[in-house]
Structures are given as structure tokens and as C-alpha cells.
Amino acid sequence: MRRGGRFLTSSLLFFLIFRHTQKALLLTLAILWSHWCQSEPGGGVTLEIAPTNTNAIVSWPCPSRGFGLEFATNLVGMTNWQPATGTSVSNSGLWQVTAPASQPSGFFRLKNHLQYFGFWAGSVAPGGSIIEQRGSVNFTMSYGPGPSADLAVASGMKLMFFAPDFSDPNVQAQLDAMRPYASNMLAFFTRDEPDCVANGDTNELDQLIASIESQVSQLRVSFPQVPTMMTLGCAFWSYSNFRIPQGIDYIALESYGSSGDPGATRNEWMSKLEFLRPYLNSSQRIFLMPGATEGYGTETQLIQKANDIFTYAQTDPLVMGVFPFDWYSDNYDCADAGVFCGNGVPATNYSISVIGNRSARDLPNLRARYIQIGRSIMNGPFLDHRGFLRKLAERMEQRPSSIFSTRTSAPPTSACESTRVQTPTNGMLAPWPWMNWPSVRDFALWPSQLRAKKISCV
After folding, report:
1. Per-residue model confidence as pLDDT tens digits over 376-434
2. Where are the domains of the chain?
3. Packed helices 126-133 and 147-154: angle between N→C axes, nearest 10 degrees
4. Angstrom distance (rounded) from CA 37 to CA 59
5. Which of 270 and 127 is assigned the larger pLDDT?
6. Which end of the chain is more exposed for a tag (fewer CB within 10 A), N or C?
7. What pLDDT sits at residue 379?
């Protein structure tokens, strides 16, 4: 991974990009396109529920690329979400699900395909970054088994291990040490920037791709269920023999920009993505890698670049994660601060001066924005209100005739939650007009006498 370099500067026409993104399949819903469903809704995705006879109709605009409807019978643990069945497209340009209003308590939400957020390590102190990042990332790069990996797992993070060197005579011991972590692994990282390493040499690129394929095939023997990842970004579009190595599951696409200009940067990574798209098979996914160090712009520019990546990532079902480069800065003046940094800069000590370019960790406004983005990707509206919503659900069970409503105060999210709760129709309920909330982060509970309600989803 490099802190600088030459990147693609020309961009494809927007209509070509849009045309190809229209062809993308929804990850969570196997639904065919129809002629009523041709353009993306503006201003976010809106989830609506309305009564019809004895049923409830849950709907949202078509196509809403990247969003799928999920259903849960309860909020215990917030892990019981399953894809909702019965989805179809209507003449009015809506995806719809019909649910009997008499069924037991149920909860609906629109969930985006965007699942993962984590930083390129950029340091030999992964344990410190785990402490600093926990609660706002759900995967971390780790150099292998050990205390740091254990801490990451205990903090709820998936692990990304660097793939072992299979030419090492002790490789079996490495594999055996990694095996207990298999169920907690996001991926094996195989190789960084083979297109850069080849330096324009097509023969060299062939050899690098073949070595990656060999590495992947050997990993599959011991870890058949663990995905594999590589990065691309230098000049893969310039090779006549470019292809994605067989067996690679995830491509981390460097999206830094050749200048600080956010608009030009967006054109660059959109062009890279557009070139890469035809090479992907139906199961391969993308992690976008925005630049998060001053070598790629000022803090203000880096925040805009982060926002552009996050906004786009929510609309393209091929994009599975956001993977900023990187967390730690170039170097730290530990001696001047009188701090021992032999094991890396001490966790949560943000006062030590940086030597060279600062990265996300030491740019407070950028760090704060990435914390928001990470939490949004990880949990959506439930993130900061988990305990409150649990209490709310418990109270509904204890007092089923009570009605509650709340609006989340979390930052804009990638998932929009909507809930239907069964309550008795014994005349105890007074009419409850729906509040017209302007926020795009609304959350509501409602009784079995369903009234129309729209909730916007970013």
C-alpha cells in the first residue's frame, strides 16, 4: 500500500456509469426488473406501511438499489433479521410485501447491502488501534493469531489475516495457529497492488496473478469458508492481459485520488470501478478505499471524499465495505513527548505530535466523521439506542395497549428501520395520528390498526 503515486485521471461519461449501475442485481432480493421500475428514487429511500382490509402493505420505491426488506419477530439481540418473503413490484413503481395484520408482533426494516467498515492497519500496533476503533469498525487487519487478534474478536470485530507464505517450511504451524479463528475471519489478505508491482510488465502481471491463484487454492484446503482479498489501484486498466485471479472474493479498490479535489477524485474511482465491473463474477464484491491521510488532501477534502464514498457505496450492490487508508499517521514524535512508543503509539494518546502527514487517527474531524460512517454501516438506527429499544419492547409486552414513538438522534444511516407491533383492539386505544417527522432517521412503533406511515431511509 502506497502513500502516493499515479492514478487514473480520465473518467467515463456519467451516462455509461449510470447505465451499468442500473444493471446491478440486488444482493438481498432476487427480483427481476420491470418497466415500471427504471430510475432511482431521489432524496433517499422511503419505507411505507398502510392497511388494506385485514392486511398490511409494506412498500418502498423501486429500484432502491442495494436495499432489501428484512423481518424479525423480536428485537432480542438485534440479530434475528431475515429476508422478508413475498416481495414484488407493483404498477405504481413500488416494491411491496403483504403481511397479515393479525399475525404476532413483527418488525420490518430496509437493510443496505453495505456491511463492513474498517481501516488499513498502517502500523505495527494493531492492539492500540483495536482499542481506539472498537464500537466504530467491524473488522480489523491483524498480523496473525495472538493477543491482538483475541482482543479484536472480544471487541466484536472480524479479522483480516495476511495470508501465510506457503514456501515457508513452517507454514503448517501458521495454519494450525490460525484455524481457531476461522469463524471470526472476514478474509485472508493475499497481495497488495499486483498491478503496481508489475510496473507495466504484462509477463510480471501474469506471474503475480498465478501466484495469487496458487495461494488461494492452498488456503481453500485449510479454510474453505474464509474469503480472500487483494487490492487494485495503480494501473490495472492499462494491462491488455488484466484479469481477476480465480478464487479471489473481494477486491479492495484504491480510491484515494491523484489530487485533493473531491470531485476529480470521485471521477477517478468511478472510472476505475466502471472498468473493473465487467471482470467481476456474480459472487465477487468490492471494498472501496478512500484516502484518509493528508497526502490525499486537506482534512476538509478528506471528509468530503469520505462522504462521497459512503453515499455511493450505499447505492451499488457490488460494494460490500468501506476500507479507508489508513489509520495511523506517518510517524510520531514520541521522544519530544517523553512517551515510550516501542510497541507503537500508546492507545488513545492523541496529544503526541505527528512527524509527516497525519491520518484519520490524528485528524479529529475526519476521525469523528469516520466514526459516524462506521457506526452507520455496522448498526443503522439501532446503534445508539439498543438498550432503549429493548426496554421499549419489554414495556410493550408488559403494557400492550401503550403506544410509543421516538426519533433516533444517530447520524445518517445506511439502514432504515420500521416496526409493526401487535396490540389488542379492546377499545383502550385512542386515535393516534401519525407525526409528520421531517427527519430521515425516524423510528416508530404502531398498533394493529395500521395507519399510513412513511419513514425516509438514507
Report:
1. 888 643 322 233 334 434 444 444 333 232 222 333 333 344 433 333 333 222 222 32
2. 14-21+114-362, 41-112+385-457
3. 10
4. 13
5. 270
6. N
7. 64
In the block, cell 474453505 appears at 224
Query: For helices 364-379 and 299-313, what crossing angle results, to 10°?
Result: 10
Residue 183 has pLDDT above 90, yes or no: yes
pLDDT of residue 113: 85
In the numeric block, the cell 480465480 is attached to 246
What string of DSSP letters covers 382-417?
GGGGHHHHHHHHHHHHHSTT---EEE--SPP-S-EE
pLDDT band at 325 (very low <50, low <70, confident <90, very high): very high
Right CATH for 14-21+114-362 from 3.30.230.10, 3.30.70.260, 3.20.20.80, 2.130.10.10:
3.20.20.80
The pTM of this model reads 0.70
- Cβ-Cβ contacts under 8 Å for 432 (sequence gap 6 or more): 403, 446, 447, 451
Tell me the residue type at 171: V
The DSSP secondary structure of 239-261, one letter per residue, reads -TT--PPTT--EEEEEE--SSS-
Q: Grid coordinates in use for 293?
A: 491521510
Residue 110's pLDDT band (cuts 50, 70, 90):
confident
55-61, strands of its sheet edge to edge: 88-89, 94-100, 55-61, 45-52, 453-457
